[in-house]
């Protein structure tokens, strides 16, 4: 399992902005899933804000969603060759 680095910025100079997919940032956390579509449906049923339905890429099927704090996370399903 790869390591996860958690960072917290401390101080008055930190500017909190809403995350979006088009802003360069230092973080992204991706969770692998066996079935991205099933995870998407479950999250939608729970009222989670998904930024798109699962999309197919060269080697994966993936989508982004927001956690309760508004942080963007990713679900990725690797595709078989």
Question: How does this model look, in words?
Answer:
The chain is 12% helix and 25% strand. The chain has 81 residues and is an alpha+beta fold. It has a four-stranded mixed sheet, with helices on one face.
Strand line-up in the sheet with most strands? 1-4-3-2
Strand content is 15-25%
Summarize model confidence as the mean pLDDT: 82
Multimeric status of the protein: single chain
Order of SSEs = EHEEE
Global Rg: 14 Å
Secondary structure tally, helices: 1
Major sheet description: 4 strands, mixed
Shape: globular
Give the helix proportion (percent range). 10-25%
By DSSP, the count of extended strands is 4
List low-pLDDT spans: none
Helix and strand content put the structural class at alpha+beta
The N- to C-terminal Cα distance equals: 23 Å
Using brief descriptors, characterize the structure shown:
alpha+beta; 4 strands; 25% strand
Topology:
Layout: E1 29-32, H1 36-45, E2 55-56, E3 60-66, E4 72-78
Parallel strand pairs: 1-4
Antiparallel strand pairs: 2-3, 3-4
Brief summary:
By secondary structure, the protein is of the alpha+beta class. The protein has one helix spanning 36-45; strands spanning 29-32, 55-56, 60-66, 72-78.
């Amino acid at each position: 399992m790869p390591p996860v680095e958690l960072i917290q910025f401390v101080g008055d100079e930190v500017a909190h902005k809403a995350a979006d997919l088009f802003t360069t940032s230092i973080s992204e956390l991706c969770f692998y899933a066996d079935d991205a579509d099933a995870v998407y449906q479950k999250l939608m049923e729970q009222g989670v804000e998904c930024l798109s339905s699962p999309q197919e890429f060269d080697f994966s099927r993936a989508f982004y969603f927001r956690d309760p704090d508004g942080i963007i996370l990713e679900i990725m399903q690797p595709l078989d060759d």
